[in-house]
Structures are given as C-alpha cells and as structure tokens.
Amino acid sequence: MSIAIDNRHNEIQAETSNSGVGSTEIAIVIQNLKKRYGTVDAVKNVSLEVRSGEIFGLLGPNGTGKTTTLRCLCTLVQPDEGLLEVYGISVTQNPAAVRQRLGYVAQEVALDKMMTGRELLEMHSDLYHLSKAQSSDRIQSVLTTLDLMEYADRLIGTYSGGLKKRLDLAAGLLHNPQILVLDEPTAGLDIESRQIMWTLIRQLQQSGTTILITSHYLEEIDALADRVAILDRGTVIASGSPQDLKKSIGGDRVTLRIREFTPLSEATQVREQLLELDVVKSVTVNELQGNSLNLVVEAESDVLTQIEFKLNSLNLPLFGISRSQPSLEDVYLAVTGKCISEPLN
Amino acid sequence: MTQSTRTSQLADSAQFDYPDLNLSIKISHFIQETLALTKRLFIQLIRRPSTLIAGLVQPLMWLVLFGALFQNAPDGFMGTSGQYQKFLGAGVIVFTAFGGALNAGLPVMFDREFGFLNRLLMAPLVSRSSIVVASAIFIMSLSLLQTIVIMGTIATLGAGLPNVLGILVIIAIVMVLVLAVTSLSLALAFSLKGHVELIAVILLTNLPLLFASTALAPISFMPTWLQWIALLNPLSYAIEPIRYIYQHPDWSLNAIAVVAPWGSVSLIGCLGLLSAFAAVSLYSIQPLLKRSLG
Fold this sequence. Notes:
heterodimer; A: alpha/beta; Alpha-Beta Plaits; 2 domains; four-stranded antiparallel β-sheet; B: two-stranded antiparallel sheet
C-alpha cells in the first residue's frame, strides 16, 4: 500500500483483507450520491458499501453531509443523482419495500410528549401493520431490551433525554428491521447512557442486524465500527477498517510539551530544530493546545531519546512527552488536514 | 438469532412488498394506519382538553351575544319572522365548523417542524393519504359534537329544532364542508414554510370569509359587489340550506336555498356543490403528499 500523505484530499483505500465481520452479502450500496439544497452541495459524491451483519461507521464533523446521506437512504429525501440499494432493492424505485427493512433513528429525537411510551410504540406497530399478537409481542420485547418497562406507561413529556433516546431506538427496532440506521446515537448523552447505547448496538449486531451509524465522535467509531468511511464536505475521502486505516497512515505520533504553555516563537524554533532529525517526518504546532508540538516519527525509532537530547542542547525544559501508535484521530488529521474538533469554515 | 433466522425474516418481510400485495390486505392496512393516526389525535385531545372546551364555549358565546345584540330589532328585520337566533344559528354552525377545519393543518405543521412527521413518512404506509383522512375523521368528529351542541342551544333559547331528517341533512352539509376545508388546511400545512406562515394565512382567511358570507346578515343587506363575493363563497352554500331548514319546517331537498345572478340553487344542489368542492380539495393535496418533505 503506497500512500502519499502530503496531498490533503488523497483517497486512501485501505486494503481490507477478509476482515471477518459480516457475510459477503451486501446490505447497502450507495454509488455516486449527490444532493444539492439550493446553492449548497450537501452531498457531492458519496459511495460506500455496507456488508450484511457489520457495523459501518460514517465519520465526519457536523455539516459534512452525513445526515443528508442517511435521509436519502431512508427514503425521506429524493437524491439528485446516484444509486441507492438496500439488499438489491432500489431505494428510489421501491421505497415501500425499503421502509419495511430499515429502522431509522434520527439525530433529533422527535416524540409526542402527550403520549405514553407504550402508546407511541402501539402507534408505530400499527403504522408498520403488525398484527395484534405480533404487536404486543414486539412491544414487550423492545421495552425489555431497552430497559423501558418501568416508564412505558408514563407520559413521554416526563422522560429524561436518555430515556427519550432509548424510546426512539425502541420505535426503530419495533418492526425488527434488517438494517438499523443511527444518526449520532450518543450525541448529548451522559457517559452511562452512552455505555448502555454502545452495549445495545453490539448486542444488536450479535443478533444479526446490520448497523449503519454516523458520528462525529472518533472514539465511538473506533470502538464500534467494523469498517468506516470518512466524510469531508460531502465526499468520502477514506474508507476501510479502523485498523487498516491506522496502519496505512504509518509512523508513530509524539506529542511534545516544552512548557505547560509554550510561547509560539519558542515552539516554532524547536520545530525547525526537530525537523533536522532523520527520524522526524513532520512537526505541527498545535495552537489549540498551548502550542504543544505534534510530531509524526518513524515507528520503532529511539526518537524520544533524540528529542530529549535536542532539547537539552538548546537548554529548554521538557514539560511532557508521549508517544503512541496512530489513532483514528491521526487518520482523520492525515486525510483531512484538520482536527475533527475544528469548526468548519 | 442466527443467519438463517435472518434470511427467513427477509423472506417474511418480502410478503409486504407493494404493489404486489392484494387489494383487500392493502385496504385493511390503510384502515389500520389511519385509525392509529386518528387515535393519536384523540389521545392528544383527551390529555389537553382545553381545545375541546374552547371549541364548545365559543359558538355558544356567539349565539348568546349576537342574539342579544339584535334583541330589540324589529320583527321581520332579517327578512323573516322569528328571533335572530333562528337566522344566526346557521351562521354559527357553519362558522364554527369552518374555523375548526381551517385549523386542522396546525398540528400537522408542528409535526413537520419538530420532526415527528418523519416518523410517519419513514413508515411503510399504504398511502400518505392516511394522514389526511385521520385529520379529517378527527375534525369531523369534533364538528359533529359542536353542531349538536349548537343545535341544542338554539333549541334551548327557544328558536326551535328541525325534524330528524332536517338534522341529518344539516349534519351532512357540515361534514362535507369540514372535509373540504380540512384538506385545504392540510395542503397549506404541507406547502407553507412554517407555522408562522400558516397562522398568518388562517387569520387572513377566517374573518374575511365570514363577513363575505351570509352568516351574519342576509344577502339583500349587502351592496352588489359584496353580494357577488358572498355568492362565490362556499360558506354561503352551507349556510343558506341550513337556514332554510330552520326557517321552513316544510322544507324539501328541491327547495331553492340560494338565488344567484346566474341561477337558483336548490338544497340538494348546494350539497352537490359542496361535495364537488371537497373532491377538488382532496385531489389537490395528492401531489403535495407524493413529493418528499425536506
């Protein structure tokens, strides 16, 4: 695999050898999706494939077109161009069949606060045309799985944010869809609800559901996804399994803090000095974090000793230094040239 | 759940692929989804009864206050003998029903703005018309209740009660008008930008249409230009037949209810016109439902 990282928007196709997860059957196909709103290209060109039984992550900051892609897939929005298929069924031509197979849980929870949880689920089961027997069966099942039994007959208006999200998920699961589409499933949740959600998602995969999630949380994608596609301004710029993407980036990451808050001039000076070292590939001054230095270095080199030596010779202190193998955050930085937490301009 | 169970589930759900499904199943599914949506509207009403209470009190206030306004008007003032309530009654019935139906689109607009509508659009509905039919059933039920209460109040105020057939015809007229106006209101809810715009249109439509009709005064009171508008106003074709039934115990379906420059319209003719109005409204909403909303 040869990669050129200097070009920001290079497409990195990480070779995924049998990653093992998911059968060879393809659950979702999206090819050259395009959607424009007025003068804004929300989605410029998105292509991806989701295998049956895997968890597929769509990663990118807000505003890159993740939600629009999902809405095109879930028959809520007509795409301008592109092919969308769910188990071989065309989304644009046969939306009813697609709706039967998909469960969509949107980013914003939209519930009716005048209904109880159970009433909402009963409404859903009628909209999905379940029989009386199926309905009570499935409602019982999702209420238990999502730990909502206690709250089922209380008004939704009294639910906490985490409860509402779980009810939303329960509604999405009611008709036992083959594919579950989750848009930012843990956005705004506290840590405990987040862990519950992650466990649930893994359990759902175990029971055979294919899951497509979008997130702007790197650790979430890293923890859950079997394969990932990175979205930047409406285009997929990298895809593959998290491990393969990290391997394809290559090198180790070193974070160096000369002082707790280093003056910019000093940091820039040290940067010049460090670039002279052979094992150092690139150095960036991280202005968002006290002008610390982010280095990309050759893996398995004695770079730490070399850096300490350099700093000593310059009579500079060393507040902290750490070294790690590339993370998904580094992958994101390498392919987009920016931190995922940076605001989009 | 193993892979094989998943595959058999796939086969099961293939049963529900439209349009291969046979007609009777489609119909029962349509009824199922429509009733579910109607049920939701009634749940909201029961838990928030203020709308119902306001909807029953307002027409009673109109009857009592307007009636009192013309308490000492000379007999025969309104072109017929008897109390003003007998005259006004028809106007209040139609005006109340019209107001309720005009607001039918508001809950749908809020659903649309807050994302709840997406739940409905994501579901494999047989037809999105079930959303319209559910609203129509709900508003028609409310209008029926209001009409009965108003007719009861008019009777209590001493202005009489039509015979059973007359009551049924009045209810039929109201139901058809409500169906027409509900469709239009929903059409607006699907096409306007937001609830602010919808409320603006409702306000602009409600009172002017009331005054440009025969709700409060007979046609003979109006200048020619207003007469023309009133005779083009569908509300007049609901008000006049109801008024006729109230004022003529010997009414018949062929009796002339409206005299317009272009001809006379009988009672049954009015019902026919209103039905055509309803059919056109329902038809106009179809393309709006088909296109995706967002």
